[in-house]
C-alpha cells in the first residue's frame, strides 16, 4: 500500500537563519537561481530538480547549525563535476572528497556551508561498502553520518586485581 503522505511532488525544508540577506546571496549562488519569494525576514526557493521547496526564516535565536547536514545526490559523476566547478567559481566549496567511504557507501562529493553553518553535501553514489573511513570517527569530523568515536577509559593492570577471580578458582 502506497503512503499518500509521502507521495508528494516536492519535499519541503525550512531553516532558521541569522541574516536573510546573507542567506539569499549564498543560496542564489548555490542553487544557481534567484529566490521565488523574498521578504524582510523570509525567503523561499522552489527547485524543480531535485524537487524541493526550501524556505528560510530569519530568527537568529533559533539557529542551530549542528543538526546534521542536508544534501543532494546527483545521477552521474559528470553532473557532480559540473556542479563542483560552479561551486568553485562562486567560492562556495569547503571540502572535496573523492572515493570516500561515508555512511557505508563509496561516494565522490563536495561540501558547502551556508552563512549559518548548515552543511550541504552534493554527492555521486559509487557503490555500497561495509565500512566508513576512520577519519569520520574523529571528533573534528563534522561531515559524515558516523557518530564520533567515544574516548575509552584506560585502566591499569593493578586495577584489574580488584575485580579478578581468585587464583585457581576456575572462573578465568
What characteristics describe this protein?
4-stranded mixed sheet, 2,3-Dihydroxybiphenyl 1,2-Dioxygenase, domain 1, 172 residues, 33% strand, Signal recognition particle alu RNA binding heterodimer, srp9/1, 2 domains, 8 strands, alpha/beta, globular, 3 helices
Q: What percent of residues adopt helix (DSSP H or I)?
A: 10-25%
Straight-line N-to-C gap: 55 Å
Uncertain spans, ≥5 residues at pLDDT below 50?
A: 146-150
Question: What's the mean pLDDT score?
Answer: 81
Tell me about the largest β-sheet.
4 strands, mixed
The fraction of residues assigned to DSSP E strands is: 25-35%
**CATH superfamily heading of the largest domain:** 2,3-Dihydroxybiphenyl 1,2-Dioxygenase, domain 1
List the helices and strands and how they pair.
Elements: E1 11-17, H1 20-30, E2 37-39, E3 42-47, E4 52-58, E5 70-74, H2 77-89, E6 93-102, E7 105-113, E8 119-128, H3 157-160
Parallel strand pairs: 1-4, 5-8
Antiparallel strand pairs: 2-3, 3-4, 6-7, 7-8
Q: Explain this structure to me?
A:
- This protein is α/β, with parallel strands linked by helices.
- It folds into two domains: 11-58, 2-Layer Sandwich (Signal recognition particle alu RNA binding heterodimer, srp9/1), CATH 3.30.720; 65-150, 2,3-Dihydroxybiphenyl 1,2-Dioxygenase, domain 1 (Roll), CATH 3.10.180.
- It is 16% helix and 33% strand.
- It has helices spanning 20-30, 77-89, 157-160; strands at residues 11-17, 37-39, 42-47, 52-58, 70-74, 93-102, 105-113, 119-128.
- The protein has a four-stranded mixed β-sheet with strand order 1-4-3-2, covered by helices on one side. A four-stranded mixed β-sheet has the order 5-8-7-6, with helices on one face.
- Strand 7 (105-113) and strand 8 (119-128) form a beta hairpin.
- The longest helix is centred in the middle third of the chain and has 13 residues, at 77-89.
- The protein is globular, with a radius of gyration of 23 Å.
Amino acid at each position: 500500500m502506497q503512503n499518500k503522505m509521502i507521495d508528494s511532488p516536492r519535499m519541503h525544508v525550512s531553516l532558521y537563519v541569522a541574516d536573510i540577506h546573507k542567506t539569499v546571496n549564498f543560496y542564489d549562488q548555490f542553487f544557481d537561481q534567484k529566490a521565488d519569494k523574498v521578504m524582510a525576514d523570509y525567503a523561499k526557493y522552489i527547485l524543480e530538480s531535485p524537487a524541493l521547496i526550501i524556505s528560510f526564516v530569519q530568527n537568529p535565536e533559533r539557529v542551530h547549525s549542528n543538526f546534521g547536514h542536508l544534501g543532494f545526490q546527483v545521477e552521474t559523476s559528470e553532473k557532480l563535476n559540473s556542479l563542483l566547478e560552479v561551486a568553485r567559481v562562486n567560492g562556495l566549496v569547503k571540502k572535496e572528497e573523492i572515493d570516500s567511504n561515508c555512511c557505508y557507501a563509496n561516494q565522490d562529493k563536495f561540501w558547502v556551508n551556508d552563512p549559518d553553518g548548515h552543511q550541504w553535501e552534493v554527492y555521486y553514489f559509487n557503490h555500497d561498502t561495509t565500512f566508513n573511513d576512520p577519519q569520520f570517527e574523529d571528533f573534528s569530523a563534522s561531515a559524515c553520518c558516523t557518530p564520533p568515536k567515544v574516548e575509552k577509559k584506560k585502566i591499569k593492570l593493578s586495577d584489574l586485581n580488584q575485580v579478578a577471580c581468585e587464583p585457581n578458582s576456575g572462573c578465568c
